[in-house]
Amino acid sequence: MKIYETSTAPNARRVRMFLAEKAIDMEYVQIDIQAGENLGEAHRQKNFTTKIPVLELDDGSYISETVAICRYFEELQPQPPLLGSGARGKAVIEMWQRRVEFNLFMPVGMCFQHVTGYFKDRMTPIKAWGEECGKQVPVFLAALDRQLANSTFIAGETFSIADITALCALDFARVIKIRPGGEQTDLLRWHELVSSRPSAKA
User: Fold this and answer.
1) Domains of the chain with bracketed CATH
2) What is the mean pLDDT of residues 98-121?
């Protein structure tokens, strides 16, 4: 197996962290998305949406979408359970994973794309939309701070994919100059804790 990715992209980092937590070694093939390598026919044959990362299985088939790739490896190697255990545990982690993805990860990405114009050669940036997305992020960070006042990790007392998604989004948000406020002590405590995990360096 191998994964096609771009090492600086936050979605790619999510998968690397997930696999590092499970101690799964993987071959990573770098795709230059800034140069548009992912738009070429060779990559489109792997994933028609042109996005990364993409997992190539040993039989030559492909799986794309970050969480789908993570779920594949969760099924292959259930321990440690990063997508939860039991009906309630899995549901709670899925709930927080989606909350983080929709209210933090995606707005950070939209702000980056539309404000910086990084992909202006292949999309039409709408700066006002990017700025609006950026305004949504501090609101959700305040909600996360409140959640973390009562739990060690985002979805409870167990590290999960929700923490991986949040860390990758928050770290990438530095590019658009969005950081937690100094008063968000529980969020800052969490950030220091998860950043100290070996997988955060993956």
Assistant:
1) 2-76 (3.40.30.10), 86-201 (1.20.1050.10)
2) 97
